[in-house]
Structures are given as structure tokens and as C-alpha cells.
Amino acid sequence: MAYKDATLDQVDSALQQAQISFLSYKNISGKKKAEFLRAMADEIEALGQELVSTAIRETNLPEARIVGERGRTTGHCRMFADLVEQGSWVDARIDTAIPDRAPLPKPDIRKMLTPLGPVVVFGAANFPLAYSTAGGDTASALAAGCSVIVKAHPAHPDTSELVAGAIKKAMDKTGMPNGVFQHLHGSGFDVGQALVKHPLTKAVGFTGSLAGGKALFDLACQRPQPIPVFAEMSCINPVILLPETLSQQAEKTAGALAASITLGVGQFCTNPGLIVAIQNEGLDRFVKSLSEAIKNALPGTMLHQGIADNYNKRLAHSLEQKGVTIEGQSASDSNASQGKPSVASTLASTFLKNPLLAEEVFGPFSLVIKCKDINELHTVVSHLNGQLTASIFGDEVEVAKHSSLINTLVEKAGRLIVNGVPTGVEVCPSMNHGGPYPATTDSRFTAVGIDAIRRFVRPVAFQSFPDSLLPEELKNNNPLAIWRLYNNEWGRK
Amino acid sequence: MAYKDATLDQVDSALQQAQISFLSYKNISGKKKAEFLRAMADEIEALGQELVSTAIRETNLPEARIVGERGRTTGHCRMFADLVEQGSWVDARIDTAIPDRAPLPKPDIRKMLTPLGPVVVFGAANFPLAYSTAGGDTASALAAGCSVIVKAHPAHPDTSELVAGAIKKAMDKTGMPNGVFQHLHGSGFDVGQALVKHPLTKAVGFTGSLAGGKALFDLACQRPQPIPVFAEMSCINPVILLPETLSQQAEKTAGALAASITLGVGQFCTNPGLIVAIQNEGLDRFVKSLSEAIKNALPGTMLHQGIADNYNKRLAHSLEQKGVTIEGQSASDSNASQGKPSVASTLASTFLKNPLLAEEVFGPFSLVIKCKDINELHTVVSHLNGQLTASIFGDEVEVAKHSSLINTLVEKAGRLIVNGVPTGVEVCPSMNHGGPYPATTDSRFTAVGIDAIRRFVRPVAFQSFPDSLLPEELKNNNPLAIWRLYNNEWGRK
After folding, report:
1. 0.95 cut: is pTM over it?
2. Architecture of domain A238-418 in CATH?
3. Could you read off the pLDDT of A14-23 as tens digits, one per residue?
């Protein structure tokens, strides 16, 4: 179905409404917010097969993936419900008064995290459920106590409408203020730009291309009052293969990487786009095995024509670079809407000279970098931009020999993986889905897991407040029984 | 003494050195970093009277203030030493593997905060010790594991050199890598700009004017790889006087505010620049009493001629605005290097029409806004920009009646104070010294207290790492005995 783009007046009235509802929603208890988030999950599930079929139709993703992604979406709604119901996430810190301290009395000060205000969330093309309308940005912002305006991704507007309807039902059922969640369409850039520039917008969540994320970041920084943008954008998720281990498990490693490269037609932020190893017999076997697997892999229809066009253009451009050798491509026929699994290789010296080869090719493609020795491998790693992930394949003894490599990789990526592929992002407290630019616009935050809430909150200190006027989280008798740093001791007393 | 400005080559080599030292310093234990931070405090104290005399000479601040500020500076060095020695600040989160989970095994993931890299700190004019060379930005960045390059404030270069020398002695005594701390001079904008634009710089700390902070923020956002800037800049710290309480304590409140307005010649970020109240007999008595106190207050020599010129220019400009009445000015003679304590008043309707009246006048000046009723007072508060602090004078019963005012003030300021003046920033875990723009460039962080460390760190997750290869903070047996979220339970096991 075709939806009308929101007008500038509609954007303005959405923000006005978001601000009004924010001022009451922020004070609703964590328990009530948890009810709302759980009702969101329930209502999304209640959409049943209609949601699954619609998402399949609009994204070309297979049913199992959509069903899995729906589970992840309802899962994070319930995870954030648990978090805010328990309440310790506000990071309460209490220092009680010392009236007789010399030379000056010490006042009573108490601090907690509070929501930023209305948040604008951009639906992601590659996660029609888990990073779109009720995605991680929306769920974490609502959990924080922010109101949310989602701009639907134009590639899956019907899916977005269905989920928005479910959220609105959940709002009604749990008595949330009207306007806590709002949903707008915009096929071009105008609506998104107007949302980011609106003075009442206090933060932005985005998952998508470097060009898109950077444009929103720039707009947000150039506002009369700059606001934070968490944009998860672009990276190539390097995979380092250590030589001794590789010679023992070249074929097994190739199998794992082929599966990761082609998973979801390569349309994951964590797709392994770069494989770095030292030239030797083990690497030859690895490349041969990987190439075979890729030749046998089937092309898949991509999320939308724009993504397919972009993949095919960027892939062709990479493959035509001087010194790049095509190692394997899917042997099956493909059409212009599909992405053809492909691997290529080049020498480290070529890679180091050509910045284009370090750019993301969003789709089922990976480039193998052949290094002449460990020093050159180090140089390649040092040369990389910021990444969401970096993987090292090597057994414990061999990885231990390369601690300086890990020391460098920590500076490059938000998540390091030993003997595992980067795809598959676990939703849990220890997850970090973030990384230095251009992986994201601010490496200090994560888009996945409970800490995603921190993007949308700020501390507020209350000094010399009578107990009766303090928020529940900071009252003397700790009525919510949350963990607090009380006179420098952690406890729940 | 005159110091040569650093050349662009010196800036570059400082960053190269900062990067090299960072890569080893970050891995030094919290215990060793604590030794370094404590040695910094010891060496600053060992400078004795020379430091005090030099700072007095360069800033015109009185001895008691400099001695107090030295105590605050050594105090925060030791506070961060305690923090990193104890170690729980890294916010460790551990989720152990569930190999037999269906449909997919759950991997072991562990996360902790790690330092961003080389940090550039700009010395602040108004805190020659506590927010300059060994100030809160430097101490928190070093505690985080970052290397630091300080650009000395050109108004107190000798003080800065002395403190830099003390830090270097501390580095030598505790065996820190050469280049963990470096110190450069720059009289104009070139050195600062080059430091912020250098590709190896990973974050910036700044305390100063809106124009200065915004310029650095813009530079940082426009880099090929944008970096975070925490700039603490400009605000007017509104003080709300509730009518019933005011009528009972007009004179006492006036005395407290007069002292706060004139403290340190008004050269504090938390100086109360705006007083908002409802027109009535109590306010008349308050204004009379405040005016008397200000008339009797002495002009003071300001930090440097630029600040004095700026104060006198902005003060004159504010006082000549239509509808502004001078209520009281110091009756003593003053010269061009001094700031004359001054208070003025205007009607809320005038204030709301003239944005200039909401701008900071850095110095001993405050503007009283007379509102015709509580609704107009609400309108004034809603109209305010972001602030470091907001104070409300009122007894418990009266403040409770105005909970909607507090609800609004929370959106405007980083710290709310009941019946207290905003000056006097306690250094403790619950302190928040931050606030919405233009008070700072990112309201999600604080410049004071242990959480200031968060500005300079980012999370890194370690997935499927053998225990032997994990950082100490994340190892199974918790060798540092730090607080960790372990499978969603807080503990130190």
C-alpha cells in the first residue's frame, strides 16, 4: 500500500504531541512502563501470520528469518520491561549530608538517570522488525521514559504500519499517554530531515548507510541546539586467520565463513567483509574451500531494488580494482534483484594502497587479504577503520602469542570474537553492538542489549531535596529496592 | 614568563607520542594507575607556596581560594585513584555460554569499559588548578587509561608549567610510559584547532566560553572521523523564589544569593545569573535587601583583562536593554580590570521578548525577573535554555505544591537544588556537573565526580575468549573482586 508522506505540519504536530506526552510518560513508574513494553510484545505476537507474510512480501526475507526476528523483537521488549520494572538501571548514587564538615557543610546529593525527551527513530531496511518500528531503538527509548516518533522505512511500510498498530493497541490497553509513540511515513529525505531538525527532538536512533547516518549526524550537530545521534552505519568486520590454527582447520573455517558471508544474502551489519591471513599452504586450502562453498551458494533476492543495485555496482567496482582476483562466485544464474555470493582476494600491499577496498560492500561478498608475514598482517589491522566486530580464528596457544594483535583490535572494534563468526548478535547485557566511526557515530554506546538505554538518558542530581520530594529511586528507604551507590558502597538497603 | 606556541610539527609529534604511550598505558593495572594519580597529588602538594603564589599572580584570585582549589585538585586525583584501584567502574557484564540452547547455542560474552585513546584537554581560565592542567578532565581521562595532551590556558601559563612538571615527576616516579601526559602552549586558536583536528585525537575536554566550546565541537564533528567533545560552556543557573517562603525569609535569601553572585568575582560556571519570582511585597523586600548587599560588595580584579572587558561590555549591554532597571551596583570605585557587582530587574514580559537577557554575563551580575503570577513564572522557566543548575527556594510544603515546576526544571538542568545556592560543586559520586545545551555539548555526561570518567571510555565485548586471554576484570574467578553483572545478577563472586 502507498502511504502519503507526512507534511511539515504533521511533523511539527507530532513533535508537539511527543513533548506533551513525554512530560507525563517520564513520571510513570517502571512497573507501568514494563506493562506497556510487555503489551507491545503481546500485540506484535497477536498480529500472527499477517505480520510474517507482510514482512516476507516487503523484504524478500524467508519465513524462518522473519519469525526469528519477531522473536528477537518481542524478546527485547520484554528484556527492557524486566530492566525498568527492576529499576536499578537508573544508576542511583546517593551521598548523604555531613552538616558539621569543616570548612563547609556537605549537602545531601542524589543522582539518577532520566530520559532525554522525544526521540526520533529511523526504521532500518535490513531489520524490518528488530531494528524498525518496535526495534531496539524504540524499545530502549520507551524503556528510558522517552516518547518516540518512528519514521517508517519506505521499503516496508505495511510491516511498519502493522507494528505501529500493535504498539498503539498496547498504549491503549495499558493507559499510556496519547503520543508516547507516533508513526510517520516519508519516501524521500524531507520528513527525516524535518524530524531531526525539529527543536523538540532530543535524540536520534538510526541504522543504515554511512551516507544516511552521516547526513543525519551533520544535521543534528548543526542545529542551534545540537542533539546526540546514534547512527549504526558501515563496517567490514575483519576476520583474522592465524596461520598455525588455519593449517589445521582450513576447510572447517572456510565453511563457517561461507555460511556467515551468505547469511541473509549478506545483509547484516556484522557481515564478514574482510578476511586477513598470511600467505601459505593453509591459506591456499582455505581460499579453495571458501571459493567452492561460495560457488555452490545460491543468489538471494535482496531487501529492495536499491540495495541490490548498490551491491551489484559496488561489487563490480571492487572486483575491477587493479590487483583484485575473483576467487569464487555463485555458479547459479541471478537476476538484477538478487545478490550473487562472491569472494575475491588481493595482496596486502594492494589493499594498503587502495582505500576503496576497505569500504563496505553491503551484501554477500568478502575480500581475502593475503599478507606476506605477521608484520604485514599487523600493518593491515592497524590500517583499518572503526568496526562493529573483529574476529580472530586461532587456538588458545596461538592467540596468546598474538596479544599485541588483540591490543590493536580492541582499538578498532566494539566486539572481539575468538573462533567465531561475527553474524549472530546475542541480545544480552554483555553485548556491545557499537564501535568507532564509521561503524557508529559514537563508540561510547551500544544499539543492542540493556545498555542501549544509555543513549537516551542523562543524569540529574537532586541537592538538599526533602525526602518527600525525591523520585522513588532516590528516597531514603529505597522503596523500589534497587541497587544504589550509597555513600560509596553498593547495596539495596 | 612567555612560552612559545607549539608548532604544527610539535602538535603532530605530541599526538604520535600520545598514541604510542596510550597503547601501553591502557594495559597498566588499576593499582599502578592509582599510584600514578596519587603521586600526581603528592607532587602538586610538594610544589608548595610557589604554586600558590604563581596562581595568585596569574589569576588575581585570593590565596584561600587557590589553596582550596589545590585541595580540590589533589582530592579528585586521589578520588580517581581510589576508583581505578577498586576497579568496579569498568561496568563489567558477563553472560556465560549455554552450549545446548535451542535453536542456537549461546556464546560466552563479557563486556567492560575501555579507554578511548589520546584525549586533548583545554585548561580553563576560571579554574587554574581544578579544571586546568591536572584538572578534572585530565584526572578522569588518565584514570580511564587515556593519554592526555593539555593545552595550557594562556592566562596562567606559569601555573600550568608548574603543575605539568609535577605530573611529569609523578610519571617518572611511578614508571609511567613517556608521553602519557604532555603539555603544550598556544596563545591563539591554531594549536587548539590542530590538536582537535589531529586524526589520533580521540576525545576533547573543554571548560570555557560558548563561542570557544562550540567552535571546538564543530571542528570535532566535521573531522573525517568525528570525535566526542565534552565542552562545559554557558548558562545562567536560574534561581526560583517561591512566594510564600520568600515572604518569610526575603532578607536571608537575599544574603545567600548576594554571597553566591559575588563569590570569586562571579567567575563560576554555577554563578546564579537569573532570579525568578512573583511580584509581591516579599519580592520587594528581597530586591531591596539584595541591592543593599550588592552596593556594599567590593569590586574584584577579574581573571584576566579579556574576561574583565567582556564582563563590562556585556553588563553594560544588558543594563541598557529596554525595560531593565538597575537595582544595585557596588558603591566602590573600580578600574577596568575589575568586575563591579551588579543586580538589575525586569518584568517577565520583557525578559520573554528579549533573548539577549537570557544570555550569560560572566561575572558578578544577576537579573531579577518579576512575574505577575505563577503561570507567568512557569512560562519563564519553560522558556529557558539548558543549564548546569536550577535552584528553588521554598519550604517542603510550598515546593510540593509546585511539582510541575520541578518536572519542567528537570528538563532544563543537570542539578536541582532546594533552598541552596548553585555555587559550590561537591566532588562526589552523586554530583552531576553537566546539563542540556548550551550548558554543555552533551547532557549525558558530567565533568565532576567519578562518572566524569565515562566521557572517555567505550564498551568492548569479548566473545568466546579463553579465560587466559581475557582482561583481569572479566576472568572467571574475578581476581580483582570487582562488582560485575554476572548472568544478570550483581555480585563480586
Report:
1. yes
2. 3-Layer(aba) Sandwich (3.40)
3. 999 999 999 9
